[in-house]
Amino acid sequence: MTAEATEAAAPRLLGGDEDGPLRIALLTYKGNPYCGGQGVYVRHLSRELARLGHRVEVIGAQPYPVLDPGEGVTLTELPSLDLYRQPDPFRTPGRGEYRDWIDALEVATMWTGGFPEPLTFSLRARRHLAARPGEFDVVHDNQTLGYGLLGLERAGFPLVTTVHHPITVDRRLDLDAAPDWRRRASVRRWYGFTRMQKRVARRLPSVLTVSGSSRQEIVDHLGVREDRVHVVHIGADTGLFSPDPAVPEIPGRIVTTSSADVPLKGLVHLVEALAKARTEYPEAHLVVVGKRAEDGPVATAIERYGLGDAVEFVKGISDPELVDLMRSAQIACVPSLYEGFSLPAAEAMATGTPLVATTGGAIPEVAGPDGVSCLAVPPGDAQALAAGLGRLLGDAELRRRLGAAGRERVLARFTWKQAALGTVERYRAAMADHRRSAAAPLRRGRG
After folding, report:
1. How many other C-beta atoms lie within 10 A of the C-beta of residue 100?
2. Rounded CA gap, 421 and 427, in Å?
3. Domain layout of the chain by residue ranges
4. Between 3.40.50.150, 3.20.170.30, 3.40.50.2000, 2.30.29.170, what CATH number should domain 3-235+416-446 receive?
5. DSSP states of 73-95 as a string?
6. DSSP symbol at 242
7. How many whole angstroms separate alpha carbon 355 and alpha carbon 20?
8. Are the folds of 3-235+416-446 and 253-413 the same?
9. What's the pTM?
10. Roughly how many angstroms between the first and final C-alpha of the chain, as a whole number?
11. pLDDT tens, position by position, for the chain (447 residues)?
């Protein structure tokens, strides 16, 4: 074949029809929606991409993604050794469980205090995709940022990577919260994978992120060129997360979604704020969607303020149960010190539940102006948080107005269909860039 003929064929070989349905491989090393925002992202984005007519195959490791049935999205399990599974986290595998050198690397990294999954999943994913040439038009990685990704473009796969926010932010906040040098050393070792993620991110051709705030963090913390980072907002399932006047409102109920002792989530400040608010509103109580920690700062604060009967943790509830819980609350609260987007804020607003939220990270981008669609307070300020809670608990008309405005804001800006449409635009741009890169050596060869 001549160079001219090869170049003419390149678009068909490297991306298919510019306007037709795409074949998408969606990679996620942590895909269970109960483990955090990454799993929620995979579930809803894959569904909406399929509804747009694209063929989506999710390739994931444990905890495996939970996908919506009947939508045509397929799941390929790419198993790890599942070293952090419950009820036996940090387990040592039996001799018969080892399959190859990647398994040995995974265990060795865990034994030395590191977190191996982003690296080892990326290596397994590269090996898996290399054995399937021509089967996908684009590969979309969900914040793995492992070294294995760097070989995918050379193997013929246009690559797009979503970074919800740089994990370096989590690292900094965990270090700030560490009580002594031993804990700080442990945190540094655990987050050792962020050095890899920085190196990989700088070499990626196309990075998606979920907010303008996260975009700036990616540029500043990871050193990615500004022209390679693109914002595609995510959203709420507005059909599921919706108001229902038939669900009775429970006086004093405040709902939040939080991991108990992740400093980033700011739950300890909300517990202190609740104690302050109860001096004027003794019926105020908190329902936390998340796992209760038996010790640590949050448990200590609950005991210190005598809130054992006023703070309830619920875990593993279904989506309809979560929605009804939000509908029953007088207030939804996002007390985080930082969020790359804040799905809990968008979902609460979608139900029409009035929101009190901090200004950490991208939360104002989602929640909107103070006093218009939410009440905004500084992150880490329990006194300001208590004032916001008290203001809403005492003003039914303000709750009604903020709840309605929040719902309207989400419908206008933050839905999963809008997210899928924006993501497909970035897929097609990445495919076009990949075709140009592949054709460039042919043009040089003719010279």
Report:
1. 10
2. 10
3. 3-235+416-446, 253-413
4. 3.40.50.2000
5. -EEEE-----TT-TTSTTPPPPG
6. -
7. 41
8. yes
9. 0.85
10. 17
11. 333 333 333 333 334 456 799 999 999 998 776 656 788 899 999 999 999 999 999 999 998 999 999 999 999 999 999 999 888 889 999 999 999 999 999 999 999 999 999 999 999 999 999 999 999 999 999 999 999 999 898 889 999 999 998 888 888 888 888 889 989 999 899 899 999 999 999 999 999 999 999 999 999 999 999 999 999 999 999 999 999 999 999 999 999 998 767 788 999 999 999 999 999 999 999 999 988 888 889 999 999 999 999 999 998 899 899 999 999 999 999 999 999 899 999 999 999 999 999 999 999 999 999 999 999 999 999 999 999 999 999 999 999 999 999 999 999 999 999 999 999 999 999 999 999 887 766 555 555
Q: What is the amino acid identity at position 59?
A: I
On whether the CB atoms of residues 419 and 235 are closer than 8 A, the answer is yes
Query: How far is Cα 210 from Cα 229, in angstroms, rounded to an integer?
Result: 10
Contact assessment for residue 76 and residue 57, using Cβ atoms and an 8 Å cutoff: yes
Q: Which CATH code, of 3.50.50.60, 3.40.50.2000, 3.30.310.40, 3.40.50.1110, is assigned to 253-413?
A: 3.40.50.2000
Type of residue at 171: R
Token pair 């609460």 is found at 348
